[in-house]
Design goal:
The structure holds two protein chains of two kinds. By secondary structure, chain A is mainly α. Chain A is built from eight helices and no strands. Chain A has helices spanning 6-13, 19-31, 33-51, 61-70, 79-106, 118-141, 143-151, 154-177. The radius of gyration of chain A is 34 Å and the shape is elongated. Chain A starts with 5 loop residues before the first helix and ends in a 9-residue tail after the last helix. Mean pLDDT of chain A is 73; it is low at 179-186. Chain B is mainly alpha-helical. Helices cover 72% and strands 0% of the residues of chain B. Chain B has ten helices and no strands. In chain B, helix 2 packs parallel to helix 4 (70-90) and helix 2 crosses helix 8 (138-149). Chain B is elongated, with a radius of gyration of 19 Å. The chains are: A mainly alpha, B mainly alpha. At the A-B interface, helix 1, helix 3 and helix 4 of A face helix 2, helix 3, helix 7, helix 8 and helix 10 of B.
Chain lengths: 186, 194
């Protein structure tokens, strides 16, 4: 019989080889010093790795973990929940604004928009209020806004600005309230 | 002091006795640290990964309804956490981590029968085994540690890693073969030449 392959030998050691083949390998091991040594090496390695002393985790680890997992419970104002709700609302607004932009683009030339729904109209009104506020801000604070106005594609830049601002708010909310755990270092 | 099983501790945590989670951390932190050290090889990163992993496991507890497979899920999360750290720290991906520093083919290994008993049984051999284990590519070192240290079966590793049985067996065999080759190269080149 040829030497068993390495996977065969490992399966033999792990008692996962079929009975017939396991018998053949066992017989081979009686005759073959090379394969006996292969088997002994694997068994010795298993024993050594298993009995090797473990790396010690720092004593403070348990305390740090418990501080981290307790953090959500010390949130009496429910800021995390508010943050999640705020993120959800903001995401809906972003999607609605983007959707509105798509609807407006697809319904160009001031044709009546057949795909508009009451939800879209409500969102459109909300975004109009939002846009007016932002428009005031832009007009007052930036000369760039003037050049954008002059560029003639105001609606497009308004939408971009609103989306960027909303994403900024989302990121800030996540940074402030979404931190999962406290990393304390020694 | 009563000694609860892992599942009993988890049940208590799910019942609102959050402090019981500390018992679970205490029980498993050294094994987790060992696996993290074998894969990350950096104490600071390993400590951070283990802490992160336990917190992830705790947060995951609230998202499951049955505790039957919760430990497998927690260990699986832990492995994923280590992988995330590895990928971030090494600036590579999981596939490349398996490809790093793969050993030579079996043809280049000396005749095993020439290795005397005195070497395999000695303290020096123990040191060589651990050094060879530390030199395995991180993911092979991790899978070998899971198999040897925890005596996990192939099927348990499948559950933890989420990889198919064939993949687990192939990687485990590869890890064990590389480890053996590393050991033999060490003792072979030094001792067989004497």
């Amino acid at each position: 019989m040829n030497h068993p392959t390495t996977p065969e030998l490992f399966e033999f050691i792990d008692n996962r080889l079929g009975n017939e083949r396991a018998g053949q390998v066992a017989s081979h091991l009686v005759e073959c010093a090379h394969c006996r040594r292969r088997t002994e090496l694997e068994r010795s390695t298993h024993h050594i790795v298993q009995s090797e002393s473990l790396f010690k985790a720092p004593e403070r680890l348990t305390a740090l973990v418990m501080i981290s997992v307790a953090a959500p419970m010390r949130d009496p104002l429910g800021l995390r929940l508010l943050s999640k709700l705020g993120s959800l609302v903001a995401m809906i607004v972003v999607l609605a604004v983007v959707g509105l932009g798509i609807v407006k683009v697809s319904g160009a030339n001031d044709q009546p928009n057949k795909t508009s729904s009451s939800i879209t109209q409500v969102v459109a009104q909300l975004s109009e209020v939002y846009t007016k506020g932002m428009q005031t801000f832009v007009n007052r604070t930036s000369t760039i806004s003037q050049s954008i106005e002059n560029a003639g594609d105001v609606q497009f830049w308004k939408t971009v600005f609103i989306i960027a601002l909303t994403i900024g708010v989302l990121v800030a909310a996540d940074r402030v309230f979404g931190k999962r755990f406290i990393k304390l270092r020694s | 002091m009563e000694s609860l099983s892992d599942h009993e501790i988890i049940s208590r945590v799910l019942d609102g006795k959050t402090r019981s989670f500390a018992d679970l951390v205490e029980r498993h932190k050294d094994k987790a640290m060992t696996l993290a050290m074998r894969m990350l090889r950096n104490r600071e990163e390993a400590e951070e990964a283990v802490q992160d992993a336990f917190v992830r496991a705790f947060n995951a507890l609230g998202q499951v309804r049955e505790t039957v497979n919760i430990l497998d899920m927690a260990v699986s999360d832990f492995i994923q956490c280590l992988l995330d750290y590895l990928i971030e720290a090494r600036g590579t991906n999981a596939v490349d981590l398996f490809r790093q520093n793969e050993g030579k083919s079996e043809d280049e290994i000396p005749d095993f029968s020439e290795i005397p008993d005195s070497i395999v049984e000695g303290e020096e051999f123990r040191r060589q085994v651990i050094e060879a284990l530390n030199e395995l590519p991180p993911l092979y070192s991790g899978i070998a540690t899971m198999f040897y240290l925890d005596d996990l079966s192939y099927e348990e590793i499948v559950t933890i890693t989420g990889s198919p049985l064939g993949t687990v067996k192939a990687r485990l065999f590869r890890a064990r073969a590389m480890l053996r080759d590393g050991i033999v190269r060490r003792i072979g080149t030094e001792e067989l030449a004497r």
